[in-house]
């Protein structure tokens, strides 16, 4: 059985390293047959929906040939014959559909913290989560493990702006989040909608984007008009230097939101940087990136 030291080491090396240690049987680990009735899903599983057609296909294969790769489970209480799935929930669900009584499994010692990380990583590595499910998975890691965005990005091998952009989706109205969950709105469209100044227009514009099959570029142009940006010719006439534009792009990538740099015309080297935020949570996110702690 893999040692706790080895598992912790794997958690710091990104997705690939984690799976090499958690989702693949080590040569010395024993594969046992466990009753399906003794196994429960991972309580930290971020995926809420599984493709039923794919499950039926897998179930048909299991009926004919069995389960080739054992699932990985843990036993929270050594005195109770109950197990929680660490990796392999699709195989478990398909085996139930195939009316199997048992499933091959490896019992491994894994902490609550590792359990949660593996649940997120298994889905990010093996299945396509919706953008919203991915955002909720990152949010769950931060809240339950008390991690900062920087710590989550380091553990998962993702950039901090990447994590921040997904977390911003959680600030959208419920109706819009449902559209994302159903795959009706893309990540790019959702990010564009987040730049709307009047949040009451979010849902109507999201519905219009779906109805008219708008591209991200078309949606950006509409959002600019709605925000009134097109009514400011004086500002649009001011040409920014390549240095300023490059700086804006880098800051936008870092903060995961629109950033504007404007130079004063009266004094050559003076100007201002504007970073808008959507909510108190979004402000806290930006302050965290700046390493400002107000607690």
Automatic annotation (TrEMBL):
What superkingdom does the record give? Bacteria
DNA-binding as a keyword of this entry, yes or no, is yes
Q: Which PROSITE patterns match?
A: HTH_CROC1
- HTH cro/C1-type domain: from which residue to which, for each copy? 141-168
InterPro entries (alphabetical): Chromosome_partition/occlusion (IPR050336), Cro/C1-type_HTH (IPR001387), HTH_ParB/Spo0J (IPR041468), ParB/RepB/Spo0J (IPR004437), ParB/Sulfiredoxin_sf (IPR036086), ParB_dimer_C (IPR057240), ParB_N (IPR003115)
**Residue stretches in coiled coil:** none
Q: Which UniProt keywords apply?
A: Chromosome partition, DNA-binding
Give any Pfam family that matches: ParB_N
Family according to the record:
Belongs to the ParB family.
Q: Which NCBIfam families match?
A: parB_part
Descriptive protein name: ParB/RepB/Spo0J family partition protein
Show the taxonomic lineage: Bacteria, Bacillati, Bacillota, Bacilli, Lactobacillales
